[in-house]
User: Fold this.
Amino acid sequence: MGRHQVTSVLPATAKAAVYVAPGEPMRLREFAVPELKGSEALVRVRCTTICGSDLHTFFGRRKSPAPSVLGHEMVGDVAALGPGGATDVDGARLAVGDRVTWSMVWSCGECFYCNHGLPPKCERLLKFGHEALRPGLDLIGGFAEFCFLPERTAICRVPANVPDEVASPANCATSTVAAVVRYAGSLAGANVVVYGAGMLGLTACAMARQHGAAQVIAVETDPRRWELARRFGADQVLDGRAGQAELAGAVKELTAGRGAEFVLEFTGVPEAMEAGFELLRFGGRFVMAGATFPSRPIALDAEQIVRRMIRLQGVYNYEAQDLKAAVSFLSDTVARYPFAELIGRSFRLEETQEAFDFAENVKPPRVALRP
Assistant:
């Protein structure tokens, strides 16, 4: 079979934008294209979107290994396969040229946590776009021309009706929301509060609607996002700048005086989490996914958690089933919701630093990079 199962010649090297340290300019470097073994794969990156966690890392709001190639929301074409070939999440064999996305987290499938239903906490976990540069794992982030996929990477074909810019966030934002919804339980006929109308919150509004929620209530501090939340399925949008009592009163008025069955929290802001807890009815579920960067501890009333029989759930990363659900959701709803409009602007790989500055200053839900 030769060096790779490919139909075209691969370059010897590939460009990548390297994160060096918080606030230091991104540096474009060349890395050797890896020789594939077993069921490894190499993907030619078509598009990568800048996630909020990329911004938190670059601007020093959270710690991340360095130097590294950031970027984990990506879509690309299979450029090469190891001699063993590779399969997608459904077990179908992949071919060179397939347009794919893949899980941002790699898990071994053999450790304690993988065997106890928690593959996102794998003891050998590898995260695309979060790994320090080291031999064999240089091209493991999305801000590059190629990305290397180790064996056991969960890979999903992207349907033809989903544009690159819409597909890129599937393996982070959309899959995380799919995991949140899975952990929450059935939303059918329920009142669902979504805290935050950024990329995850807007996706959650649409997904809650798709799962049959009776009413979707978005809470957002930025007035510029209120109409966008409505376009993504929110029936009501409440001003997140209001006090706890005002918000709780508004939600009770919308829910026959009871409160919401579900609060899905995507901001990670302590005040938002504390206020969101007060919006639940008896037996409600509070699912948190936004707190992925350091902040002050939140204050929740333990007695009220017990007396009101509230269930709390944290969600971090996701499983292969959530990636599959995310891609299917985008294919089913891409014509219904304006996902493509969430991309504020596209940049070339050589403009990675400009793209980060634009994302930080203008704050669109996403910014795209294309090699």
Remarks:
- Residues 174-314 form a domain with the Rossmann fold fold (CATH 3.40.50.720).
- The chain has a mean pLDDT of 95.
